[in-house]
Amino acid sequence: MLNQAPSLNQEPSLNLAPPHSAPSPMGEHFELTASIGGRSQRVVVTEVAASLRELDVDGVALVQGYPADAQPPWCAGWVLVPWPNRVAGGTWSYDGVAQQLDITEPENGNALHGLLTRTPYRVTSRTTDSITLDAGVSPQPGYLFELSTSVRYQLVVDGLRVTHRVENTGLRSAPVALGAHPFLRLGSVPTEELRLYINADTHIEVDERLNPSGITTDVSGTRNDFRTGQMVGSVDLDDAWGNVRQEGDGSSLHYLEAPDGSQVQLLMDASFGYVQAFTTTEFTTDGGMVTAVALEPMTAPADAFNSGHGLRWLEPGEAWEASWGIRYLLPRRSGGIS
Fold first, then answer.
1. Which of 36, 48, 111, 267 lies in the 20 to 30 Å Cα band around 137?
2. Domain spanning 27-334: CATH 3.50.30.50
């Protein structure tokens, strides 16, 4: 389950640092540092795209960083709304009328990762352990709907909880899906030496443009079975999985594990029924190119505007919230947390 806010006997001791001063195409950088439950936490989020830029617990980096003056490599940390992943050809149909979204992935001819990845968000709330940023979606070619959206980042004892909220502020039913694009890491351990676990039973097959082919396969006995883990350095991924294995409350857990047993975990609530993994050996950092892996929570798979899978329709005035989080699990020999 996602971590709850600290209890009264674990009141956070938190400093809200001023925005980073370095110029950045991502606008202002907002840094929170905390001491919750006898541990230290730190997060940095950006004004543009409300992206998760840095996260560490007890000094251990859990999100892959990149140069302060650079665009996020490979969409690192972006909030993906009102759809994650792709819309094939940028085309779909609403009430029988063809809609054409802007093509934002020209190499594959698709509309990629929603409408707010270049948008400055507005900070609307800060508490001692959280920050909330808002942005709106206005009617435009290919998406005729009006939305109010927000994302809340809250530090917790062993990491971060992220809560998205979307409200339909228009006059017609609106199709909505959510996602995020965090690149996870475990401190100084090279990412290629981490073991990736994806607790999902089916793999979504794609065509040459990385759109779903309509075929979903059982992962048992295939190279797409990550339920018992595979080394990041041995795989090349831009893949999605469905039928995630859920706990009694609907939550699911996927993670990277280091040789010492420590883990960085992606926790998703019941709204997130899909997970995407993407690997690259060309992630730009201050120290040069490194191997990196994104583990992406999604409420719907690619091309949901056409398939309808996982797509949520919000009526005028209706709001929806969904949450996911990142958690640091200590090595077992150190008396790790569960």
1. 267
2. no
